[in-house]
Amino acid sequence: MAQSFPSLLLHLGPEEGEKQAAFLELRGALRNAYGQDLEEHSFYAFETPPDRVVDILQNGSLFGSASLVRYRAVEQLKRKEDILPLVRYAENPSKTSVLLLESSEVSLHKDVKDAVGSRHTKIFWEMFESQKKGWLSGYFRRHDARIDPEALELLLELVENNTLDLRQEADRLMAFFGKQITLEHVDQYIYHAREESIFTLFDAILAEDLDHALDIAVKLLMTMDAVQVVLGIAWQVDRLFSLQTLRAGGVPQGKLFEEQARRSGQRIAGKRLQKSLLGGISRYSLEDCRALRVLTGDTDALLRSVPATLHGGIVQQYLYSVISRKGRWNVAAPFARRPWEFPGASGFRGV
Is 219 found in the same domain as 180? Predict the structure, then answer.
């Protein structure tokens, strides 16, 4: 294979948009070089073991003169014996293949990084908040569209911090509402046009609708990691807690969002979002919110310490504890006495 195409590449980091662009650039260059003779494969580490990927690389392209293998989610490779086939392959790689390893993480098993080498490793970092706002407004301008400042802030709250998701959501908004995007458009999009999200899941939590929350969680877990789901809820729980704290401090309900924006520097935009949070305030007390914060933090830690096969059940139990027990049964510590329990209260024993 031509010298301009390294046999192994490692792309790391959470910025999926730039990572996808780098893959498309590599694929385009290989297609220009080999045309129809390029054979392409794509695998995920949690589905396809490394020895299977190495077999394909070593056997070469069956029908073409070159091959491109994209191997994603390699952060799942944690055992030395699983990684060994890749290490051995890196010592004598195929001259007619390119292996692109990808991960949304930055920290990987040392053997994987050493096999590729720092020269062919690139990290794609998330944008800073200031960069994200400029990138998104610029994207609308490049498509001859405009978005109101408040609408831009609300949209940024909804989207993961990478340009791939930002681009997809911006395209959908322009398809639905045309070239001028307002706060009302984004607000409407959240509840009617957008697919299930952390926001719709948290709405179900605030409405104490366990069945709906479980249905949404099942859909989200098909495309999202369980840790991401719980972290998204944690951010919303912190919001609810801050509003309840202001309310307990004597801030009138009509001034809660104004005072919250003044203190945090981040405005909660969108009438529907505000209405949903106000409904949550009436259902979840300040003590409830404290319990939910502890529960959510413990569940996050639990998810990071057990196999992914257990994540679905843990998320279901977490949602049950949030909605039906107001956080007062902890999936991560079912027999523990928590700091927020009232003195003399008996500990909860789980389901």
Answer: no
Domain boundary among 70, 98, 123: 123
Domain co-membership, 82 together with 50: yes
Residue among 25, 30, 32, 35 nearest 7 (CA): 30
CA 289 – CA 340 distance, rounded (Å) = 10
Distance between CA atoms of 191 and 205, rounded to whole angstroms?
A: 15
Q: List pLDDT tens digits, range 131-164.
A: 888 889 999 999 999 999 989 988 887 776 678 8
Say how far apart CA 324 and CA 322 lie, in whole Å.
6
Please give the residue range of the domain that contains residue 74: 8-123
Q: What is the DSSP letter of 40?
A: E
State the average pLDDT for the chain: 85
What is the DSSP annotation of 227-242?
Answer: HHHHHHHHHHHHHHHH
Burial of 173 (0-12, 13-18, 19+ CB in 10 A): buried
Q: How far is CA 294 from CA 133, 262, 289, in A?
A: 32, 26, 9
What's the total number of domains in the chain? 3
Give the H/E segment covering residue 102: strand 97-102
